[in-house]
Specification:
Elements (H helix, E strand, L loop, with lengths): L6 H4 L14 H13 L1 H9 L10 E4 L7 E4 L2 E2 L1 H5 L12 E6 L5 E5 H17 L7 E4 L6 H11 L3 E4 L6 H11 L3 E5 L2 E3 L2 E3 L1 H14 L6 E5 L13 E3 H5 L13 E2 L3 E7 L7 E6 H16 L6 E4 L6 H13 L3 E5 L10 H9 L3 E4 L1 H9 L3 H4 L8 E5 L5 H11 L6 E4 L35 E4 L12 E5 L9 E2 L3 H9 L6 E9 L5 E6 L3 E4 L2 E4 H9 L4 E11 L3 E10 L7 H14 L8 E5 L12 H8 L14 H17 L1
Parallel strand pairs: 4-17, 6-7, 6-8, 7-14, 8-11, 11-12, 16-17, 16-18, 18-19, 19-20, 29-30
Antiparallel strand pairs: 1-2, 3-13, 4-5, 9-10, 14-15, 15-23, 21-22, 22-24, 24-25, 26-27, 28-29
The protein binds 5'-O-[(S)-butoxy(hydroxy)phosphoryl]adenosine.
Length: 658
């Protein structure tokens, strides 16, 4: 292909794993050390690479922990850096998005196209009455109008709350209510595995549920993606194309100046209570962090074609499909549909079609694609690839090797990025954009510049090398969340109370003798199903609402492809009998109340849940059963027969599955 990959990437032939030291290993560690020795200077310099209306008075205000505020006194708008600054440069004529529909249609948008569309929609939103500080909920499929909507909202000073299009109407309703949105942007439908998903129908249901809870949705903007028939509420619903075609292409809306510590967006994520929390990210800090991390992760160059195979409805899409690429003037691929439709080589066909140079996906996607067989990969020319990334869950070393050998042909470093919705962008990961370290399959390697992380025991003391503990972040960083929307106490309680003074991620981790971090999965009541975060309490709350259910406990069972899948243990009320019909009903209830990603693998009916004498459900024990591990200490059990019954139900289910 004649493509020249980065000097760093070229130097790693064959990959350094197995070798003791990659030659530039220490160069990275030296860079990192300097960054944390004087973080204020470090971030001050990084922030000056971007455009601001007003420069900050203070890089970091740490007078009211944990409410750290970055670039205080600074004013900007993320549009200035994602779009406006590219106009009048060669980037204006560069591809911003190669969009690929599941049905094989495609669209190409330059930075100039994007700029025009965003300005027109921004003007339309102003006409609809969207004011600075207003929240706009976005419930959209993976089409270019999704990033356009996000940018238009932030351009007029609004706050977006994107709700993943795979979430149920009732999940949408809860988020509209909590965010107090008066405007919703959605679409008629989209393709998923060759079938039409009627999104507008879901949006209508969501809005009416939200209004029952006191919300008032005044306007619903609808993008016509498919042209499928939709229900229409006169006076409330407006077509996106009718709204924006009123304005000429020269429409210009000045990006509304916002304070650095204003809210840029809200993104709801699951935690350990039944109610998802609205994670708030900041205008200035998020922008500075994402701009830099995107560069460090991907060593981004003008000629790159970057593809994050994720949905914009999650933080990965916000950061690595929308803001990261645009802040760097990079070209991004956006794919609408299922990764194995119409055939299991869809991703590789897309890599070939657009000459993708950097490919970022999840371990679940890789495990899914691998099980179809290597011949699907071999059919395609993947020689443009130079860096591969993964995110969302721990990657098994054997999948890592498959990715490295078959997809990357032993030329491309694997950038395993550990982070979470709350952190804004990657925190622990290789940084080929600075200097590549020796990789170890399954390890996310070292913290990024400016990030100080550690692994500690129950008492907050660092664990010795090789001993599992809890991951903490010891110093504030610009990409950190501002707080939880409408609930400052929850922010303090969830993240800053377990180990006072430190940010608690909720993950198990281990550091090896050489200081490498290995992330081992969630340490709390949160599941990672196919890389998606789902709270067990949320699911339990749904089950309890069913008239037949007295008690419920949801646990993650290991799954060879999805990492883990939910399994529910349910105790029925007197007068109800367990049967297949009821099992199906309960599974369906979770599907419709939360979304298909939360669908339990099965429901185990038991007469009792294993509890301590003080009445606490013994989750660790349940987990051990699911993982076929020894039960461990059962002496605190209130009634040992509860365990026997559960083991039996689980064994029966597994026997049926065979
Ligand atoms: C949780 C956060 C961040 C984007 C996608 C997920 C797990 C994330 C890794 C990784 C091991 C990982 C953690 C974390 N996780 N990346 N590279 N290795 N585990 O965002 O939905 O907020 O989930 O995902 O358990 O706590 P999220």
């Amino acid at each position: 292909m004649g493509y020249t990959s980065s000097p760093e990437a070229q130097r790693i032939e064959p990959l350094p794993y197995g070798e003791k030291y990659f030659p530039h290993h220490n160069k990275y560690l030296d860079f990192w050390r300097a960054s944390v020795e004087d973080p204020i200077k470090f971030w001050d310099e990084r922030a000056r690479e971007l455009v601001w209306y007003r420069t900050w008075d203070k890089v970091l205000d740490d007078s009211n922990p944990p409410f750290y505020r970055w670039f205080v006194g600074g004013e900007t708008n993320i549009n200035l850096n994602a779009l406006d600054r590219w106009m009048g440069t060669h980037v204006a004529n560069k591809v911003a998005y190669y969009w690929e529909g599941e049905d094989g249609t495609s669209r190409v948008l330059s930075y100039r196209d994007l700029f025009r569309e965003v300005n027109k929609l921004a003007r339309a939103l102003q006409d609809l009455g969207v004011k600075p500080g207003d929240t706009v909920t976005i419930y959209m499929p993976m089409i270019p109008e999704l990033p356009i909507a996000m940018l238009a909202v932030t351009r007029v000073g609004g706050i977006h709350s994107v709700v993943f299009s795979g979430f149920s109407p009732s999940a949408l309703a809860d988020r509209i209510v909590d965010a107090k949105s008066r405007v919703l942007i959605t679409a008629d439908g989209y393709w998923r595995k060759g079938k039409v998903v009627e999104l507008k129908k879901g949006a209508d249901e969501g809005v009416s549920l939200a209004e029952k809870q006191g919300a008032k949705v005044e306007k619903v903007v609808v993008v016509r993606r498919l042209g499928n028939p939709v229900n229409w509420v006169e006076g409330r619903d407006v077509w996106y194309h009718e709204l924006t075609s009123k304005y000429p292409d020269t429409t210009y809306v000045k990006p509304v100046p916002r304070k650095s510590d204003d809210v840029l967006f809200i993104l709801y994520t699951s935690g350990t209570t039944g109610k998802p929390k609205g994670v708030m990210h900041s205008v200035g800090g998020y922008m500075v962090y994402v701009y830099n991390v995107f560069k460090w992760n991907w060593d981004i160059r003008p000629e790159d074609v970057h593809w994050t195979m994720a949905d914009v409805g999650w933080i990965t899409g916000h950061t690595y499909i929308v803001y990261g690429p645009l802040l760097n003037g990079a070209t991004e691929v956006m794919y609408e549909g299922a990764i194995d439709y119409p055939q299991p080589d869809r991703p590789w066909q897309i890599v070939e079609k657009y000459g993708v140079t950097i490919f970022y996906t999840s371990p679940t996607a890789l495990r899914t694609l691998r099980q179809y067989g290597d011949e699907w990969v071999r059919k395609h020319d993947l020689s443009t690839l130079r860096i591969l990334g993964t995110v969302g869950e721990p990657i098994n070393p054997d999948v890592w090797r498959w990715y490295f050998e078959l997809i990357g042909k032993m030329r491309c470093p694997i950038v395993d990025t550990w982070w979470m919705t709350e952190t804004g962008a990657a925190m622990i990961s290789p940084a080929p954009g600075i200097s590549l370290v020796t990789l170890k399959p399954g390890s996310a390697t070292f913290p990024l510049p400016g990030i100080v992380a550690d692994v500690v025991d129950e008492n907050g003391n660092p664990t010795p090398p090789g001993v599992r503990g809890y991951l903490i972040i010891k110093k504030p960083w610009p990409g950190m969340m501002l707080g939880v929307w409408g609930d400052p106490e929850r922010y303090v309680k969830t993240y800053w109370s377990r180990f006072p003074g430190y940010f608690y991620a909720g993950d198990y981790a281990v550091k090896d003798e050489e200081g490498y971090f290995w992330l081992l999965g969630r340490a709390d009541e949160v599941l990672k199903v196919a890389g998606h975060r789902i709270g067990t309490t949320e699911m339990e709350d749904v089950l309890i609402k069913h008239p037949a259910v007295a008690e419920a406990a949801v646990i993650g069972a290991p799954d060879p492809v999805k990492g883990e899948v939910p399994v529910a243990a349910v105790v029925l009320k007197a007068g109800y009998q367990p049967d297949e019909q009821l099992r199906k009903e309960l599974i369906e209830l979770i599907r419709t109340q939360i979304g298909p990603i939360a669908t339990p693998k099965t429901v185990l009916f038991v007469r009792k849940l294993p509890k301590t004498r003080s009445g606490k459900i013994m989750r660790r024990l349940l987990k051990n059963i699911m993982e076929d591990r020894p039960l461990g200490d059962t002496t605190t059990l209130e009634d040992p027969t509860a365990v026997e019954e559960l083991v039996k139900a689980w064994e029966e289910f597994k026997a049926q599955m065979k």
